């Protein structure tokens, strides 16, 4: 799969293609359905499939300070897009100038003149152009004018764990997944994503309290800005790590992960700390990924270190039972 940063990297002599456009944060099941439709259209026509996304998030440019929590890094989005058969992952730098482009100009300048789209596949609720003035109806009209087909994909929904089957299904969206993660309901988030919610980053030095005083050394994850961090609590996770610069993971291990400010020791900084089961190793400086499987409990302030240690032992036992059943 080719990866472009801006349309300047578009090869000379570029022909026609099938395009799908969106932020695609989360790459949830609704996104997967949309991308799958675009890939199928591309294969039917013998054309490459181009996924167009934006960086930074348009909301941050239009309303500074409003950047939503990020479910997936651009790198992760590209990896997931490649698995679905996308041929080109194109990131358009979203600028104030782009935010002011009229909808018809956005289509003419980017979709028609630069990408030479034969088919454009977007979500049913897709909007574009200045003040989100363009919608799927306008895209159909512009397609007739400029010579491309416009298709909309239906919004995908379903039931998740904890939702009664007689209740209306939820629509899978990035906003819904963020709300699940923010509430600590990582199981519902996984149902909408089609995989576990993931945090990733570099393992950094922590306070050392877990290793020195409690007997539970942790790998402390430095997460990217805007990362969607689950609600405070303790989680059963899969911990995948690799040396910095390596492309392939070294191994995936079970971990009990604490998210929060460590109230027992009057902590103030919110951290993500992973106690990796059955491994005596310092992961400092390595790149790590945490896949959140299930929330074990909320964050609690204990009256003593002894009570905390007893509860941590229980957390580890529950993690082991959940991830490594006999």
UniProtKB/TrEMBL annotation:
UniProt GO molecular function: ATP binding; FMN adenylyltransferase activity; riboflavin kinase activity
- Catalyzed reaction equations: riboflavin + ATP = FMN + ADP + H(+); FMN + ATP + H(+) = FAD + diphosphate
Q: What is its EC number?
A: 2.7.1.26, 2.7.7.2
Q: List the pathway annotation.
A: Cofactor biosynthesis; FMN biosynthesis; FMN from riboflavin (ATP route): step 1/1; Cofactor biosynthesis; FAD biosynthesis; FAD from FMN: step 1/1
Keyword Flavoprotein assigned:
yes
Give UniProt keywords alphabetically.
ATP-binding, FAD, Flavoprotein, FMN, Kinase, Multifunctional enzyme, Nucleotide-binding, Nucleotidyltransferase, Transferase
First-level EC class: transferase
Residue intervals of the Riboflavin kinase domain: 192-324
Q: Which InterPro entries match?
A: FAD_synthase, Riboflavin_kinase, Riboflavin_kinase_bac, Riboflavin_kinase_bac/euk, Riboflavin_kinase_dom_sf, Rossmann-like_a/b/a_fold
Concerning Pfam families, the annotation shows: FAD_syn (PF06574), Flavokinase (PF01687)
Instruction: Write down the superkingdom of origin.
Output: Bacteria
- Extract one GO BP annotation from the record: FMN biosynthetic process
Family membership, please give it. Answer: Belongs to the ribF family.
The task this protein performs is described as: Catalyzes the phosphorylation of riboflavin to FMN followed by the adenylation of FMN to FAD.
Tell me what this protein is called: Riboflavin biosynthesis protein
Q: Which organism is it from?
A: Actinopolyspora mzabensis
Q: What is the lineage of its organism?
A: Bacteria, Bacillati, Actinomycetota, Actinomycetes, Actinopolysporales
